[in-house]
Every structure is written in structure tokens, then in C-alpha cells.
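Long-time lurker, finally posting.

We've been working with Tryptophan-rich sensory protein (Sphingomonas canadensis) and I want a structural starting point before designing mutants. I don't trust myself to interpret raw outputs, so I'm hoping someone here can both generate the C-alpha cells and explain anything notable. Sequence follows.
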Amino acid sequence: MATTLDDTGTRGLWANIALPVAAVVIGNAIIFGLGAARSDLTPAQQQWVPPGAVVGSVWVVLFALLGMSRWLYLRGGGRGGRSWLPAWLALLGLAFPVYTGLFTDSGLGAAGTAVTLAATVAVMLAMGRRVPAAAWAILPMACWLGYVACVYFLA
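Top reply, 14 upvotes:
Generated this for you. Predicted structure of Tryptophan-rich sensory protein:
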């Protein structure tokens, strides 16, 4: 049975964007509400990290693009399990604060970033074979994660 999330029209686009955006906004509210937006980064690394509100805003945009990617994949004729790959990336992103000890362990943060970046590239390759536009919608996430990886590994 088809749901609104499977609709390839405008209603489906908005549903696919609204769900991950709502999840990341709630996640951001919890992180900032608990005062958990801190880290054990070195001062050299900290100077490369944007303010928390900017980071949170970037994730809202990235999650909207994940939703759009799923919609583009469906609209381009993709079906089945691969259409849910952006949702799995969103879950991986939402879990990031949990598996990094609420950002208190930069070693776990670096490893988590590397894993999430690898998963993002894998999703882009899997979806891009069928619907290239769906992969392009995820590219900004790969770029952001590449930046974050550079902060962890190079600064």
C-alpha cells in the first residue's frame, strides 16, 4: 500500500522533507537543551568549528536534502529497499551524539565521522546508479562530513 512518503508528487516531496527535518530539529533541541553541545576538541580544532547554531542549521539543511534524495529516487523510478537508504543515513546522523558520548570523545567522533562519510558515499553510489539526481542531493552531506573529518584528523 502506497503512503504519502511514496507519493512522487509535491505532497510526497514535502512529506519526505518534513519527516527528517522534524527529527533533526527535535534532536538539535535535545542537544542544546541538555547543554550537550560541547566537545573535547583541542583549541586548534575548535577554531575550525562553526558556532553550534550554524552546525545545527547545516544539519537541518542536510536532512532536508536526504528527504529530497529519497523523493528524487522514487520519482526517477527507483523502488524497494534502496529508496530508504537516505532514511538510514538520517538515523546514523541522529545517533551520532549517542555513539560519541554526547560529543565528549573526539576519538569516537573521528571514527563516527569516518563511518558516516563512508556510508554516505556508499549510499550515493548505490542510488546514483539508478537515479543520479538522488545521489547529487546527498553530495552536500559528503562535503560537510569531509570538512568535519578534516577538523578531526588534520587540525
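Before you design anything, note these points.
The chain has one domain: 4-154.
The chain has a mean pLDDT of 88.
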